[in-house]
Amino acid sequence: MFGDRLDLAERFHEMLQEHGIRRGLIGPRELDRLWERHLLNSAVIAELLPPNCRVLDVGSGAGLPGIPLAIARPDLNLTLLEPMARRVTWLQEVITELELTVEVVRGRAEEGPVRERLADQDVVTARAVAPMERLAKWCLPLLRQGGRLLAMKGESAAEELERDAAAIAAVGGGRGEVVSCGVGALEVPTTVVVVERVAATRNASGRRRDGARRTRKDRGR
């Protein structure tokens, strides 16, 4: 999965073991399952990423899935977005230690300056950040039209997607699907909800939330 960069994954594993609990990055019960539940679980979603694409990892936290993706796929143009200063510091330390070409930005996906700076992504990833309704609202505006949100979820992914379908559509998302990554490689494959950004959203004034005015054709709808 990591190819000739396995040593970088091993070093990241060591760093999480050494600092993860003390710095509030992982829970104490996670130490014995870092590989399966965190590193490999994150890295397998690389199979959903086209070559050389722009990827934004929202709420990166300990660096999951962002750091494993950066190790497994050095072709990616990857940015980690994290609001907490102490976690931003951690991410910068990891990137320096592993000599990764990754940008770290402090902020939240819903903030205007963040959206202006990080707009038009090909892919946005999120792991255990929020329900789909909120994720779509935060993340879809960061995507180019045709870009995809990859939300790592648990066993209730299909139920959550069905529950929040109307809210997702309201912010420009298409009909989502639930896919499994790492089948045959992991004992428990990674469940990912995939939602494509198919349209810009509009506010009551008729202005698109991406800043463009409605066309004459739009006004006739």
From TrEMBL:
Its EC number is 2.1.1.-. Residues 202-221 are annotated as: Disordered. It comes from the Bacteria. It is found in: Cytoplasm. The keyword Nuclease does not apply. It is an enzyme of class 2 (transferase). S-adenosyl-L-methionine binds at residues 59, 64, 109-110, 127. Pfam families: GidB. GO terms for molecular function: rRNA (guanine-N7-)-methyltransferase activity. InterPro entries: rRNA_ssu_MeTfrase_G, SAM-dependent_MTases_sf. Keywords: Cytoplasm, Methyltransferase, rRNA processing, S-adenosyl-L-methionine, Transferase. Transmembrane segments: none annotated. PANTHER family: S-ADENOSYL-L-METHIONINE-DEPENDENT METHYLTRANSFERASES SUPERFAMILY PROTEIN. Specifically methylates the N7 position of a guanine in 16S rRNA. Belongs to the methyltransferase superfamily. RNA methyltransferase RsmG family. NCBIfam families: rsmG_gidB (TIGR00138). This is Ribosomal RNA small subunit methyltransferase G.
